[in-house]
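User: What would this chain look like folded?
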Amino acid sequence: MIAQMVIKLYSIGIISEPSGALGLAGLTKMKQLIKGKNVAVILTGANIDLTQLNQARDMNLISKGYKNCYLIELPNKKNVVYDLITKCFK
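Assistant: Here's the prediction, encoded as structure tokens.
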């Protein structure tokens, strides 16, 4: 939810770090409790760069099931990547 909020804010021109978007992400889960009330949220963004924005985008896609992420540990030996690819795409 936090990664989704970082991406949503970025799409409207606001750059916010994940901890800065946390408050707004939390408020979206409390819509019924705050309906009709005046609410303020402080967004911060000093500790984020484009690499982290890409990570937030990827986390958002993974959480929605649009992207998969696999971690494969390979031994350090000759042709290991080639062998893996040829076995996967037989």
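Residues 2-88 form one domain. If you want, I can go into more detail on any region.
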